[in-house]
């Protein structure tokens, strides 16, 4: 019995979303697949990581597994072994933990003979996300469950958008770890130093997000790519980019990407590049890998 959870990217608006500016997010076709089978003891095995965590494990995975097992609508569940195939880099801003939680919940439901809507799975997976992030926004797990493209404004429900066609993206992984909390605090210090200048940047990002939404709904990939590039300039001015990320972004643009930028908190993690075709995507992947970084193609939305 198996279940799938999608990864996600922020197309535009990260960090500004903390200050009330909307952000655009997209669910990926790549994510996590989990399979549940009856067993002597309940445990979660993530083969790519070489981990196996039971209900008593003093780890985030063990605590998250225990939380969703105890809160399951059909609890108490019989012992079960969940095996997860994780096709996302962890801690890289792609919503790996949320994708894993959604996949685990769907696998448990299927084994229990329970049919749950995407909305129900998204709501129940908040229990899982709280273990990893304390007070999550709900963005990652909602995108993991629903997919598609959505507009997110802090404190409001996700607004799902209708797009003409899926987006083809190349994702490059810098291999650099980054703390979301540290990056958010760094941006906050910049606001304290020069609030007027900072607020002008917020207004600019808000305008970019509004125009990007129109471009998405019109299927205008060229305009969307240009807006992503402009957003990257503002993120770099907030010192959220790194040499590795800038190198990958430059290589992607030179190889034919319509636009490229950091995705997520920055300071490491991943970048995304919008490409017009699988063929162009392959060239962008090659260009990033030639720099020594990992990259892959995927569709979003």
Keywords:
301 residues, alpha+beta, Ribosomal Protein S5, domain 2, Alpha-Beta Plaits, 2 domains, seven-stranded mixed β-sheet, four-stranded antiparallel β-sheet, 10 helices, globular
CATH level 1 name of the largest domain: Alpha Beta
- How many helix segments? 10
Q: Please tell me what the overall shape is.
A: globular
Radius of gyration using CA atoms only: 19 Å
The CATH architecture classification of the largest domain is 2-Layer Sandwich
* Percentage of β-strand residues: 15-25%
Biggest β-sheet strands, sense, barrel? 7 strands, mixed
Distance between the termini: 26 Å
Arithmetic mean pLDDT: 93
> How many individual β-strands?
11
Topology:
Elements: E1 2-12, E2 23-38, E3 43-46, E4 51-54, H1 60-71, E5 80-86, H2 96-112, H3 118-124, H4 126-133, H5 139-146, E6 149-152, E7 159-161, E8 167-173, H6 180-193, H7 195-218, H8 221-237, H9 243-254, E9 259-263, E10 270-275, H10 278-290, E11 294-300
Parallel strand pairs: 3-5
Antiparallel strand pairs: 1-2, 2-5, 2-6, 3-4, 6-7, 8-10, 8-11, 9-10
Give a verbal description of the structure.
- Helices cover about 45% and strands about 25% of the residues.
- It has helices at about 60-70, 95-110, 120-125, 125-135, 140-145, 180-195, 195-220, 220-235, 245-255, 280-290, and strands at about 1-10, 25-40, 45, 50-55, 80-85, 150, 160, 165-175, 260-265, 270-275, 295-300.
- It folds into two domains: about 1-160, 2-Layer Sandwich (Ribosomal Protein S5, domain 2), CATH 3.30.230.10; about 165-300, Alpha-Beta Plaits, CATH 3.30.70.
- The strands form two sheets. Strands 1, 2, 3, 4, 5, 6 and 7 form a seven-stranded mixed sheet that branches. Strands 9-10-8-11 form a four-stranded antiparallel sheet.
- The model has no long low-confidence stretch (mean pLDDT about 95).
- The chain has about 300 residues and is an alpha+beta fold.
- The chain has ten helices and eleven strands.
- Helix 2 packs across helix 5, helix 6 crosses helix 7 and helix 7 (about 195-220) packs antiparallel against helix 8 (about 220-235).
